[in-house]
Design goal:
Elements (H helix, E strand, L loop, with lengths): L15 H5 L3 E3 L13 H17 L13 E6 H6 L1 H10 L3 E4 L1 H12 L7 H7 L4 H18 L31 E7 L17 E3 L2 H7 L3 E6 L17 H16 L6 H12 L5 H40 L5
Helix pairs in contact: 5-7, 10-11
The structure holds flavin-adenine dinucleotide.
């Protein structure tokens, strides 16, 4: 989220790469609430759950003010690995470089009102102590989970670029020095819709079953679709990066399926190329062209024969008509 425009209706994507490089996601009061390596819908589900908790405890309503804002914290090793992204986000003011846990706690308070969270889970985690204490506790627990190989809170089992603070803090020096963090605000947004329009394997839009039965046609004539609006390609959840692959694959299939006047021969040639991987392209091209030409010739001969027959029939009919009509 851009701190200079937190209510902007469109946001900048926070690359999943950051979570992959070991960034942790925190509530405003400094708790972890999800396995950061989970799918987008899972993480968002956890965020919504946190907002529900807050609302249920008499705090902010879901989506009100900062109730759906969370913090992403990356350590220095993670930032080195995601160098280009971090540099860009720093330049845009979306990430901030902060040294020491105490300063991150101040940032949570200042930017997200972290000390005003009222829900029971937050209270229990804080145990009457300061937000700085609660945040340090979170990071200590995270490092312990990393050392152990599994997080009892979220079941996370991969802890890339851990530890966060273990061995990096020196007693009494937290305010001046200590580990370097990169922090930013994140919030759930609509990223991808999983489509909904039913198509066949050529991208022809399917009729609804009742209409298909009534009309005897499974697809809507002349209507094609490809890209994000089609449904069913990705199953229940889409793998990251596969949306553009889907656009390219189905866009191409639709392009091949749409027949424009005059391109029959060319389309047949393209189909043959795709369907004959064991043959060389030039062989297929040659055969496809011959087949297409043969098809057109046969059609022309058929048409000619039909025309001749029609002419003969007309002549015969005229012969039967009396002269004075
Ligand atoms: C921030 C972000 C990052 C992403 N990163 C990745 C990634 O790294 N890898 C990946 O695979 N996918 C990624 N995706 C998903 C992917 O970009 C989209 O799924 C894909 O671009 C959708 O392409 P599309 O052509 O189906 O739809 P769109 O690109 O949405 O095109 C639809 C077009 O239709 C136009 N339109 C809408 N209504 C009308 C109308 N009534 N009349 C005329 N035109 C209209 C729109 O203006 C738009 O130009 C990302 C998505 C987002 C939002």
């Amino acid at each position: 989220m851009d701190p200079s425009s937190p209510t902007a209706p469109t946001k900048t994507l926070c690359a999943e790469l950051l979570r992959g490089a070991g960034a942790v996601l925190l509530t405003r009061d400094g708790r972890r609430f999800a396995d950061e390596l989970g799918t987008r819908d899972y993480v968002v589900g956890r965020m919504l759950h946190e907002a529900d908790l807050e609302q249920g405890s008499g705090g902010l309503g879901k989506g009100t003010g900062v109730s759906l804002q969370f913090a992403l914290v990356l350590n220095e090793k993670g930032a080195l690995e995601t160098e280009k992204h971090v540099a860009l986000y720093l330049q845009k003011g979306l990430l901030q470089k902060i040294t020491g846990v105490a300063r991150v706690a101040s940032w949570l308070k200042r930017t997200l009102g972290g000390d005003k969270v009222v829900n029971d889970v937050a209270r229990a985690h804080r145990n009457g102590r300061s937000l700085e204490w609660a945040l340090r506790q979170t990071l200590v627990q995270y490092d312990a989970a990393a050392a152990h190989g599994v997080c009892p809170l979220t079941n996370k089992t991969h802890f890339h670029n851990a530890p966060f603070i273990a061995g990096l803090e020196k007693p009494g020096s937290q305010k001046q020095a200590g580990p370097v963090f990169y922090v930013g605000r994140v919030t759930p947004v609509t990223h991808y819709t999983m489509g909904g329009v039913r198509v066949d394997t050529h991208g022809r839009v399917m009729r609804n079953p009742a209409r298909a039965q009534r009309t005897g046609q499974q697809t809507v004539p002349g209507l094609f679709a490809a890209g994000e609006l089609i449904g069913g390609v990705h199953g229940k959840n889409r793998l990251g990066g596969n949306a553009l692959t889907e656009c390219a694959v189905f866009g191409r299939r639709v392009g091949r399926a749409v027949r424009l006047a005059g391109d029959e021969a060319e389309s047949t040639e393209r189909d043959a190329i795709d369907e004959g991987p064991e043959e060389t392209v030039s062989e297929v091209r040659g055969e496809a062209r011959e087949e297409a030409v043969e098809e057109v010739r046969e059609e022309a001969q058929e048409e000619e024969a039909q025309e001749e027959a029609a002419e003969e029939a007309t002549e015969e009919a005229l012969e039967d008509v009396p002269e004075d009509v």
